[in-house]
Amino acid sequence: MNKSELVASVAKKSGLSKKDSEKAVLAFIKSVIRTLSKGEKVQLIGFGTFDVRKRPQRQGRNPSTNKIMTIKASCSPVFKAGKQFKDTVNRKCKCKKC
Question: pTM for this one?
Fold first, then answer.
C-alpha cells in the first residue's frame, strides 16, 4: 500500500473526503517526524511505538575502492509493533512470505 492507497482507505473507512483524509494522514506523518526530531517517542497503545535510536560512529568500507572510512554517528527512527498489532497480523496473515 502506498500513500495514495492509504489515503483512499482512510477516506472509505472514516467517511471523510479524500482531501480531508490526505490532510489527516499528512498531519499524522508530520507530527511523528516532529516528535522524533525532538528525541521523544510516539506511543500508540495497541499499535506500536515510534522511537529514535542513536547509532555510534563506526568504521565501514567503501565497496568501490575497498578503503576504510569513518561513518558518522546518527539517529535512526525505529518502529516497534505492539503486542495486539502483532497478534492480529499473525492471525490474519495471508501473505506468501509466511
Answer: 0.80
